[in-house]
Amino acid sequence: MRLLQEALTFDDVLLVPAHSTVLPKDVDLSTRITRDIRLNIPLISAAMDTVTESRFAIALALEGGMGIIHKNMTAEQQAAEVRRVKKYESGVILEPFTVGPYTSIGEVVELTRAHNISGVPVVENEQLVGIVTSRDLRFETKMGDPVRNIMTRKDNLVTVKEGADRGEVIKLLHKHRIEKVLVVNDDFQLRGLITVKDIQKAKENPKACRDEQERLRVGAAVGTGEGTEERVAALVQAGV
């Protein structure tokens, strides 16, 4: 048998240890996948139903990569997976869940459990009028009463204006021993919510792959068949 060319396997090659002037802490593995999107580690997960849904996409984004949610589900389910990733961590939660002052305490409890949140701003006529947190709900038994009976009212709210820097927010959280700061505009309309959990997550995962709103990045797969345009619209609405 005639060999066309020499070939090698992994076992045929050995890297000889040698001194390196490059320290591990100085190695940069970041790379761009588009002009505007940078990954801190060069890893993108496969859009397969046995590989990537929200749980793995969150874990990968926290390490600096990006997950691609598979499309073997309805458009609504895929968009929900994207939202789970986007809501896991955020510099400012721009559209927090809200309730009205006459929403029942029982409904608020159901909302917090369904979405795994610990506080809900209370809004009336587009004005921020209070907030109800897990501490307010913890031992409450009158589930039919309106939430206005137990909420922290407007005069006692801790708020910041839009564009406040993180240092100012951290000082307020520490001073008042609270876990949430509400973001308002000049008309005291709710514009967002900043939580101590998100600040802590950002500190613990400095290399995470985040978008311009400091949310984790995630991608989603689409096809070319019927319903693709509707699926794309739902994914864009979810924040992909």
Characteristic terms for this protein:
about 240 residues; alpha/beta; CBS-domain; 2 domains; 3-stranded antiparallel beta sheet; 3-stranded mixed beta sheet; 7 helices; 10 strands; about 30% helix
Shape, please?
A: elongated
Measured as a percent range, the helix fraction is: 25-40%
User: What's the count of strands?
Assistant: 10
Succession of helices and strands: EEHEHHEEHEEHEEHEH
Largest sheet: 3 strands, antiparallel
**Continuous helix count:** 7
What oligomeric state do these chains adopt? single chain
Predict the CATH topology of the largest domain.
CBS-domain
- Give the end-to-end Cα distance, rounded to a whole number of Å: 55 Å
The low-confidence runs, each spanning 5 or more residues with pLDDT under 50, are: none
Q: Tell me the domain tally.
A: 2
CATH-scheme architecture of the largest domain? Roll
